[in-house]
Structure formats: C-alpha cells, structure tokens
Design goal:
The protein is an alpha+beta fold and 152 residues long. It is built from 5 helices and 4 strands.
C-alpha cells in the first residue's frame, strides 16, 4: 500500500517537472520550439506505433486503412492522389497524453508537435517526402484535429 503512495508521489513530481518544461517550451521562439517539438514527436511516434502495433512494413494505403480502425480514436482519411486529409475525431479533447492527464496545458504551440507526429508517422510508410499542414485543431477551438498531408 505504501509503495503505491510513493509511486504516485514520484509520478506527481515528474508531472510538475514536465509541466514546467512545457511552460518553457511554449515561451521559446518558433524556430527553437519547432526543434523541441520535432524531437518530442519522434519519441511519441516510436511509442505510438509500438502501443498500437503498427508494422513498419505496411505500405501507405495499408497504413492509412489501419489508422481508420487501429489507432487511438476515429479518424476519417480521404486520399486524392498525393493529398490526404487526415481528420481525427477528438470530441474537443487533445490527443496528447500529457494534456489528457492534465500534466501540461493545451496551447496552440503544441500543434507543432502534432504536425511533426503526422509527418513522421506517414513518412515511415512511404519513400516520398511528406509535408503536413494543420487545417484545424482542438487547441484552436475545433472538436477535431485535421491535417492536410502532401506527398511530394
């Protein structure tokens, strides 16, 4: 019983440190913040594909089909040639586990991480360069997070 209390106290301490780090990240200039968010997204992608069992050998269409049903929530995906609209149904809640757990505050600057996350996730299933544009997000007041992905 006491071990649980100690573990929770350690977790709370780590969460406070993480919260402070993100307050600092949010205050960075956009170029510096982009570099940090890119590194964060890389770590998140690695954990996500392991957690949801997304095989690296899936081709792009196989990956997109998998994401409709095998990711962290409902995703509408429309592909027209080299353009993909990736619409994550979030019900107004950010998908970031740190935001979901109340560790960090939701800030539009966090969407930079989401853009890198989508780019890296798609890039792992194609040999083409991938660019991503944020169309809308929960941090901007939407119920969903929507990205326009372009294969170059």
């Amino acid at each position: 019983m006491e071990e649980d209390w100690v573990q929770q106290a350690l977790r709370d301490f780590q969460d406070k440190i993480t919260c402070g780090a993100y307050d600092g990240i949010y205050a960075l200039d956009s170029r510096s913040r982009d570099k940090v968010m890119e590194a964060q997204a890389r770590s998140c992608v690695e954990g996500f594909v392991e957690l949801f069992g997304i095989p690296a050998e899936l081709d792009l269409d196989g990956f997109l089909e998998h994401m409709k049903f095998g990711g962290s929530g409902k995703v509408d995906i429309e592909r027209t040639g080299d353009t993909i609209i990736f619409d994550e149904h979030r019900g107004g809640e950010c998908m970031c586990p740190l935001v979901k757990r109340g560790v960090i505050r939701l800030d539009p600057a966090l969407c930079v991480c989401g853009v890198h996350w989508i780019r890296m996730l798609v890039q792992r299933h194609t040999d083409r360069k991938v660019s991503v544009e944020l169309v809308d997000s929960v941090a901007q007041g939407s119920c969903n997070c929507t990205y326009r992905i372009t294969l170059e």
